[in-house]
Amino acid sequence: MKKLGIVLLALLFVMGKCKKETPQDDAQASFKVKTLAGTVVSNNQEFTFTTTDASANLVLLIQNTSSDPIKLKTMLVDVTGTDGSEMEFCFGNCYMGMMPNTAYPQNTDFTVDGNSTTPPDQVHFYNHYSGACSYTVKIYQVDDDGHQVGDALKFKYIKQ
């Protein structure tokens, strides 16, 4: 009986040791981004527009898939053909101009309540630059210290 106890303890020790050596799962982001029509936006999806009129206003809905409130940020990670100054966007707060590699909203977070979806007036991207350009934007969840949680969602807004 004593040998069985030792074997069980050794087995539990080995199982615990193996678990610690296995890479820990990072916290997963708890949101989905959808178009106004309700289609889920996939990572690296492209939205192409040929105009700067109101039909080029990309309205997005963010669904919090958890029961807890989450904090989100957005960032312009790449821009071509322009400098970002003519991108009007709202991400909780509204801005005119996106500076590359700057997190928005600045000095705060955009909080989405648990099990809810943002209304259409909360998140949109609208280019006013008349020439050809593209903006690669990411949306990501942050923890209380402002560090990214899980994977970001990137999309590209293209004006031809």
Strand content: 35-45%
Fill in the CATH topology.
Immunoglobulin-like
Q: What is the rounded distance between the termini?
A: 77 Å
Mean pLDDT: 88
**Tally of strands:** 11
Give an overview of the whole structure.
This protein has 160 residues and is mainly beta. It has one domain: Immunoglobulin-like (Sandwich), CATH 2.60.40.2550. Helix content is 12%, strand content 43%. It has one helix and eleven strands, in the order H-E-E-E-E-E-E-E-E-E-E-E. The strands form two sheets. Strands 2, 4, 7, 8, 10 and 11 form a six-stranded mixed beta sheet that branches. A five-stranded antiparallel beta sheet has the order 1-3-9-5-6, with no helix packed on it. The termini are far apart. The relative contact order is 0.24.
Itemize the secondary structure elements and their pairings.
Elements: H1 2-21, E1 31-35, E2 45-49, E3 58-64, E4 70-80, E5 87-91, E6 93-96, E7 103-104, E8 110-112, E9 123-127, E10 133-142, E11 148-159
Parallel strand pairs: 2-11
Antiparallel strand pairs: 1-3, 3-9, 4-7, 4-8, 4-10, 5-6, 5-9, 10-11
Which key phrases capture this entry?
160 residues, mainly beta, Immunoglobulin-like, 43% strand
Task: Briefly say what this structure is.
With 160 residues, the protein is mainly beta. Helices cover 12% and strands 43% of the residues.
